[in-house]
Design a protein that fits this description.
The complex is a heterodimer of chains A (about 500) and B (about 90). By secondary structure, chain A is an alpha+beta fold. Chain A has 14 helices and 24 strands. In chain A, the strands form 5 sheets. In chain A, strands 1, 2, 3, 8, 9, 10, 11, 20 and 21 form a 9-stranded mixed beta sheet that branches. In chain A, a hairpin with a 2-residue loop joins strand 20 and strand 21. In chain A, helix 11 crosses helix 12. With about 90 residues, chain B is mostly helical. Chain B has one domain: Orthogonal Bundle (Non-ribosomal Peptide Synthetase Peptidyl Carrier Protein, Chain A). Chain B contains 4 helices and no strands. In chain B, helix 1 crosses helix 2. The chains are: A alpha+beta (about 500), B mainly alpha (about 90). At the A-B interface, helix 13 and helix 14 of A face helix 2 and helix 3 of B.
Chain lengths: ~500, ~90
């Protein structure tokens, strides 16, 4: 079925593959590796030379113990000795005391998968890309893609790019995957519709510090997210010495931040009490790759469709959701896993393309929508009556277009047809916020008896929805063939026994 | 989804034995299954088995009292709830 692993030329200057992947970040590397694992030929075109800088340093267990095990890269990650994170610590909501969202249900249920990593993305992304090459993916760096080419019927059939020597090249493939990240422009080859949420239109300014304090005891590796009047700060321990620190604020501050980035970062972190205290004896890194103060729009968005006529969107090319819960790499690698399962199932002739692409899009959109709901509730928890930033992030301030977009997202996923009414969507978000607020209150501060037990939080419906697929992915990574999974979508597919394709329920 | 087999202590025990790779005879009604090697990942797998049988239970429901006897109770309750709604 598949061409030889190194591709076979069919016409001058053109090489043919089963799949071509655009972009070598975690989403692109994951989908490429998981397709190559089934013996199909894959080319991956990356515009830069790795290792290269990237933001989004805090991972979730579903990536580390789920997708990364399927990628067969676990030992490389262990050797890299990344900072171990047992959860997130939040100075957020009504209580002045920080509280924990831990990955382990309770101390008794703290198992070998109850942790994730904080990673320097220069190192992590490079490990994943080299791993893709080791699995037979034809990785080509410094190869920016210029265009996706379609055949007479409009199906994606090739990609034109510039090689490292500056020459124009073409690769043909049965499937094209756009994993070119938040700066890519090829997604509009799938649809010109992309909804940016007004609610989450934030801007982030960030840099790196040496010698910052650490959270006490077992929480020393946790991400710390702390709300203050004008927004919130992240504080991510990347090693014993190095900390990634950023401030997320209203987009209206963009001009002020751009005028003097360093001053803005120091002033904003200085107004966030706990972070100011943790940085009191720290110095900002001023040279090397960590020496710059960077700015990025943290807008949340979802593209109107993730797949059309042989072209699929994965990672930030498909959607992005606010970074407060460390979802970036999870959504990208999860999207990569789904895309690989769908393409593998078509290439092997097991299932028809329409069914598997509906499964890809439906599951991916569901995952985006549950995080969207969770994060909306999460922002709504924070009380700052006098703050413009926080006032605008109450569920009651949700704009009409955002509400419609959310209603379509949720309605479409749940029932496969009609959208929720906007009033119902609004009530649903308010209920999620109330549930979350009371669960956080019942859990109590970090490192107390109740604060070590996540049962109440995990039971809150909005949290349970967020955990459902992540838990499945982890179980799949750990148990392999022994994992048991039910359809996520009504009448939908389940993973095949190797976890790399789809199957109908009765065929397993 | 229709339940494929009734939930009894023995069917629960059989599933637990399978995920633990142990003999059914070695698992008592009231043994703490945490001590026998049930972890969160294996529990997830059991939750999926339950859902397949129409018992809508969560990971946390099962984790609260990890014994065959308690799970049988939780599962029969959850199955009845589902039947009550769909009846």
């Amino acid at each position: 079925m598949s061409a030889a692993a190194n591709g076979t030329g069919t016409r001058t200057g053109t090489r043919e593959f089963d799949v071509v992947v655009i972009g070598g970040g975690p989403g692109g590397s994951s989908v490429a590796t998981l397709i190559a694992r089934r013996g199909h030929s894959v080319a991956l075109l990356e515009k830069e030379r790795f290792p290269r800088y990237q933001i989004g340093e805090s991972l979730l267990p579903a990536t580390v113990h789920g997708v990364c095990r399927l990628l067969e890269v676990t030992e490389d990650l262990e050797r890299a000795a990344f900072m171990v994170k047992r959860g997130g610590t939040f100075r957020w909501g009504t209580s002045p005391d920080p509280w924990n969202f831990l990955f382990a249900l309770s101390p008794q249920f703290s198992g070998p998968t109850s942790y994730a990593y904080q990673v320097d993305r220069m190192v992590f992304d490079d490990i994943l890309l080299r791993n893709a090459a080791r699995h037979g993916v034809d990785v080509r760096e410094q190869c920016p893609v210029a265009a996706v080419l379609r055949d007479g019927e409009g199906r994606a059939e090739a990609v034109r790019y510039t090689d490292a020597a500056g020459a124009s090249q073409t690769v043909r493939a049965r499937f094209v995957i756009d994993a070119s990240g938040n700066t890519g422009r090829l997604w509009n080859q799938v649809t010109d519709d992309r909804h940016y949420s007004d609610f989450f239109k934030n801007i982030a300014v960030f840099g790196y510090f040496l010698g910052g304090k650490r959270l006490p005891g077992p929480d020393r590796g946790n991400i710390l997210c702390a709300a203050f009047d004008e927004g919130w700060c992240w504080y991510i321990p990347l090693s014993e010495e190095l900390t990634s620190v950023g401030a997320v604020v209203h987009r209206g501050n963009a001009a002020l931040i751009q005028a003097d980035r360093e001053k803005a970062l120091l002033e904003l972190t200085g107004r966030c009490d706990i972070v100011a205290d943790y940085l009191s004896k720290a110095t900002r890194v001023t040279d090397g790759v960590h020496g710059q103060v960077r700015v990025r729009k943290d807008y949340s968005y979802a593209t109107g469709s993730f797949v059309r006529d042989g072209m699929l969107l994965v990672g930030d090319a498909a959607c992005f959701i606010d970074p407060v819960f460390s979802t970036g790499v999870h959504l990208a690698t999860y999207g990569g896993l789904l895309a690989a399962r769908s393409i593998n199932s078509v290439l092997s002739g097991e299932l028809d393309e329409a069914s598997v692409m509906a499964e890809f899009e439906g599951r991916y959109r569901r995952e985006y929508s549950v995080f969207y709901e969770f994060l909306t509730a999460f922002y709504d928890m924070q009380q700052h009556e006098d703050s413009y930033f926080w006032q605008a992030r109450k569920v009651t301030e949700f704009g009409e277009t955002d509400l419609e977009a959310f209603a379509t997202l949720v309605g479409g996923v749940a029932s496969g047809d009609a959208a929720l009414a906007p009033e119902a969507a609004s009530q649903r978000l308010s209920a999620a916020s109330r549930d979350l607020t009371s669960a956080v209150a019942a859990t109590g501060p970090m490192q107390t008896e109740s604060g070590e037990r996540m049962g109440t939080l995990f039971k809150a419906p909005v949290v349970a929805s967020v955990m459902a697929e992540m838990n499945q992915i982890q179980a799949r990574g750990v148990l392999g063939d022994g994992a048991r999974e039910n359809p996520v979508l009504p009448g939908g597919l389940v993973p095949s026994s190797d976890g790399l394709g789809w199957a109908r329920r009765d065929q397993r | 989804m229709a339940p494929t087999s009734p939930i009894t202590k023995d069917t629960v025990r059989a599933q637990v034995a399978e995920v633990l790779d142990e003999l059914e005879a070695n698992i008592g009604d009231h043994d703490d299954l945490l001590d026998r090697g049930i972890d969160s990942i294996r529990l997830m797998s059991l939750v999926e088995w339950c859902r397949q049988r129409g018992a809508e239970v969560s990971f946390v429901d099962l984790a609260e009292v990890p014994t065959v006897a308690a799970w049988t109770e939780v599962l029969s309750q959850a199955t009845q709830d589902v039947r009550g709604i769909t009846a």
